[in-house]
Fold:
Amino acid sequence: MTLTVAAAPAVTTAREGTPSRRRGHRWPLLPLLATVLLVSVPPDGAVIAGSVAGVPAADLVSGAAVLLCAGLLLFLRRRPLSPATAVVLGLPAVGLALATVTAGDPVAALPGFVRYLQIFVLVPAAVLLLVRDAQGFRAVAGALVVLAAVQGATGVHQYVTGSGASYMGEDIRAVGTFGPGDVMGMATVVGFGLVVAAAWALRPPAGTPRRLRPWAAVTAALLVVPLALSFSRGAWIATAAAALAVIALTGLRQAVRALAVLAAVGVVLVGGFGVGSEMISQRLTSITEVTSAPDRSVNDRYAMWAAATDMWREHPTAGVGLKGFPAHRDGHASIGLSAGSDTAGAGQEFRRQPLLSPHNMYLLVLGEQGLVGFTALVGSWAALLAGGVRRLVLARARGAAAVDCGLAAVGLMTWQAVDFLYADIGGPSTVLTGIVLGLAAWWALAEPERAAVA
Structure:
């Protein structure tokens, strides 16, 4: 079955319309760009209201993007998604609805239903429909790079000045503007930006100045520093996997050169300048040291993984219900699980943060939504990743102008899929998951000929 987007014919080619007309297609991107950039605003920001009634500004603007998309469909009579595309993007809603109605307390599960629907269905669909061509894709992806640069610079400053989150007794952990309560936030943002920059360094967008390639390469290399200083093991693994996927999909010769450069950068940053080399080494080895010299966070994570799996065994079809993991955790976790994690630094006093999720999206979905929800949600992600790789191979074979979009889309989707092995949704950066899924869907579900329009 060929997956196509019915809205794709609105893409204009060089022979269709004037430049001013093409620019007229750009304004619907504004809420998407604002969603990405407003992720940097702290919830308690003093200059700009970072949240309204506890809802982050970026989430509110993403809702505006969804409403704008609905308005365009209704009033401008734009055709909605094709049946096949609607199935791929809408499939997660089936598992979400079932897990909500079968939950022990459906009312308590309703906020979870809304949140999941926003991140995994509505925002990706809005991105798919509002991004009209490759230039629109590049604009949103470029916003991710800008966001990563801002957050990365903030994180490096925190490490250098000792004003970051607490790590091993020192306030040196780079967390950007997300604070110690969301230590994965900056690492996620930097990972996304690094992947996009790497894709553009390997295959610059058509029609861009030659200097973009070296600048993109320099940006990707510099973003390695805050990523390392985040001390986030899951983000390291996800970024490495995404970078390798992007490199491998550019071709053998270019892949060999890119790997050589990547190895040299790693030697210079860690070996030459000693960028947190001792702490990074300890952080890496702690991933497997669970029995001999266990890291408490790793021990707790494995205990919560076991608890989520046990919940699924008791409720294999529909799980324990959305938002049900915290209520069922103690009944399934081992006695070795600690009460929570300690957070401090980056302008925040010491706090005890409860462990309310297994920090593995796949197991969280399996435990709360059962096999039905797991199959629907993960099946949708797998379709996007497989479709994206297929489209990329076709675009390369045909010499399409937007191969850079394909590399970025596949890289971002790979990053998210791998990161979900060590993390789940939560925090201000969560809305970016919907943006990334939408970009991946735009590339995977559009025809290569139309998606390749520069």
